[in-house]
Design goal:
69 residues, alpha+beta, Alpha-Beta Plaits, 4-stranded antiparallel β-sheet, globular, binds copper (II) ion
Length: 69
């Protein structure tokens, strides 16, 4: 498992946190570690999953990008 940290734009309240959490929870091979306003941390089995994570967050209405480093 690899830990991926993401910056998430457009979140402003607890509703946003729950929306991102549930979008992530539906993805196979993804374990949600934490979601806060503006960021998320997940564990993935395969790094190729990162693009589907970004897509799922986008579908929920927020803009995500991986924080590298
Ligand atoms: Cu909100």
């Amino acid at each position: 498992m690899k830990e991926i940290a993401l910056k998430v734009e457009g979140m402003s309240c607890g509703h946003c946190v729950r929306a991102v959490e549930s979008a992530l929870a539906e993805l196979p091979g993804v374990t949600v570690e934490s979601v806060q306003i503006g960021s998320a941390k997940v564990l993935v089995e395969d790094r190729r999953t990162v693009s589907s994570i970004v897509d799922a967050i986008s579908d929920a209405g927020y803009a995500a990008e991986e924080l590298v480093g």
